[in-house]
Design goal:
alpha/beta; six-stranded parallel sheet; three-stranded mixed sheet; 12 helices; 11 strands; 13% strand; disordered C terminus
């Protein structure tokens, strides 16, 4: 872990990454790709030490409240957050200024901040996004080794449901020849239904592989699934998008179930929901700086 002083924090679309890199060890992680020009080891977490100050300055200067997102590139609740609490400090600022939050994670550490998530939801809007890929716990521990498993993430979804905080599940990636089965999909959808999720983000059944990510992924395949790397090379070559041969039947089942239970199931609809800020909640209020 090392600290840097960042020049900015919020992206054009009001997303932020307090950390850069990750210690969760997911074998398929796209954030390892060389196209992101990371100059340090992926597990050597870069911490933006002035992130809370940058966020407060940015929110103070905004003329309209909006949703602030985090977790798109690096999980805001990786291991170092337990001690550093930078994500918590940023949530405190979001709550103080009356903005909304859309937080994406695989970690149950998010429950530590349930008080702030509740406060943001009461004042504006808070959506928690949890990634689920693999119903089988043993397989999950191979694909996502250094973070809590699927059943624990399901319990997180249930706790958030109990607290009245809306949730979205990211159902990706689904790895061809590994977890691209109807049994896996059915198990995950049952968890989503029981947890009452608002929507499921699904870009299709498959994964993406590019330079940087590919090398790490193939090393993991050699360790845990002998012969699987050769199967990927034979089927996909150096393709960026690796779509499961089971995609058509899996998508048919996915759409049938999510439509039946009224879940958002198109990426554009889920993104629209995540970015929608409920101005009606803030009517008559003034920013705390006034």
């Amino acid at each position: 872990m090392h600290f840097v002083t960042a020049k900015g924090l919020l992206s054009q679309h009001n997303g932020m990454n307090i950390y850069r890199g990750c210690t969760h060890g997911c074998i398929y992680c796209d954030s390892r790709s060389t196209c992101y020009h990371m100059t340090h080891a992926f597990e050597d977490i870069e911490v933006k030490e002035n992130a809370p100050a940058l966020l407060e300055a940015a929110l103070r200067s905004k003329r309209k409240r909006c949703m602030i997102g985090t977790g798109a590139m690096s999980d805001p609740y990786m291991h170092c957050e337990k001690e550093l609490q930078f994500t918590r400090r940023c949530l405190e600022i979001i709550q103080r200024y009356g903005f909304g939050a859309a937080v994406q994670t695989k970690s149950d550490l998010i429950l530590r901040d349930l008080d702030l998530l509740n406060a943001i939801e009461q004042k504006a809007k808070c959506v928690v996004q949890i990634t689920l890929t693999t119903f089988d716990e043993q397989l999950c521990s191979i694909l996502e080794p250094n973070v809590c498993g699927t059943q624990r993430r399901y319990q997180v979804l249930k706790e958030l449901q109990k607290a009245g905080i809306p949730t979205v599940v990211w159902l990706c990636p689904i790895l061809p020849f590994i977890n691209d089965t109807e049994e896996n999909l059915r198990g995950l959808l049952e968890l989503c239904i029981d947890a009452g999720v608002k929507g499921i983000m699904n870009f299709g059944f498959g994964t993406t592989i590019r330079d940087g990510d590919r090398e790490y992924f193939y090393q993991a395949l050699d360790r845990h699934f002998p012969g699987m790397k050769q199967r990927y090379i034979q089927r996909f070559g150096n393709a960026y998008e690796c779509t499961s041969d089971n995609h058509p039947k899996l998508m048919q089942h996915f759409l049938k179930v999510t439509d039946r239970y009224g879940m958002l199931n198109k990426p554009e609809d889920v993104f629209a929901y995540l970015h929608e800020f409920p101005h009606s909640k803030a009517e008559g209020e003034q920013l705390s700086m006034f």
